[in-house]
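Sequence only, no structure available. Ideas?
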Amino acid sequence: MKRVTIEERPWWRKQAQDLGFQFHTIDGEKYWDESAYYQFSLNQIENDIEDVTTDLHQMAMALVDEVVASEEKLSLLCIPERHWDLVRQSWQQRQPHLYGRMDLSYNGQGPAKLLEFNYDTPTSLYESGFFQWLWLEDAIKHDMVPSDSDQFNSLQEQLEHRFGNLGLKSLHFASVLNSDEDLGTVRYLQDIAAQAGLDTRYVAMEQIGFADGHFWDKDNQAIEALFKLYPWEFMLAEEFSDFIAQSDTLWLEPPWKLILANKGILPLLWQANKGHPNLLEAYFDDGASLAPGWVKKPVFSREGANVELLLENGQHLQADGPYNDGRYIRQALAPLPCFEGNYTLVGSWVVGDEACGIGIREDNSLITKDSARFLPHIICD
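Reply:
I predicted one. Tokens follow.
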């Protein structure tokens, strides 16, 4: 694994604009960054990332049965008691799931370490599945990378296959208003679902209503199945949450995904698999002072918000955010590798139950925040 500096393609911004990749630059700062790429060997991808992703996913899935059967664990995960049956039944009915991303600390030499699962509303999907593949094709065509370069990326093909096997005829897609990134992610998924033969519609989350036992879109079309890029923990705290169990809408992701998207799954996973080389020691927070070499995370948080870490040398880092009113977990620190002053996070994708690609993000600090940049990668021995 190495970071290789490279010239940007002069046409990439126009290409992005033409394709609707509106969030390549966010608040004037570069998000898509092709001034460098990461190079992996095939052995690193297959043995250290793909196989590990499959193992970690299977271990996590194996825990869901145990969690839904335990009121103590559902409570530890801060799932509201009045929605336990919703979560439990969605799992017992094996309601289908679509995709997820797990974040790994990996430097190319040691075993990858699981930092967390993003299994409810993961983003960076369009740039992982589509735009970095376009970059690779152009880079090979213009001799910018070795001609035999490949990429760990069958994300789009796996998503199309998954949509085609959900057994659905129609599917609504929803995101919140005024978020280019969320809208871009949802529109990408909607396009793939249409390619799989589904009748698709888009509706903003704010425009969904409930009446006569159904959720409806703004055109009074009943919503039979809905992919929502909106967190379950937000939905279950809102006014309409009690209607969810009353409706016959199929949700993607299903309510049981709230268990795996929850940072509380990390201490439960450690308890069940102590000493596993790809897991980090983790516990529920007991309120004591944070020890050197440990990280503190809210059970519900995104983009590094409200994460606090204490390095072995006593340096303290903390990211601000809105997730400061709930339970926390503690996790042993596995510092992100640093390449030329950039701290690198590997996001490993799972569609259905298949590991199928990665996306690389860089931040200027050990905490990967929403301002982190996305860089492409290649496989080349």
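The two ends are 10 Å apart (CA to CA).
Hope that gets you unstuck.
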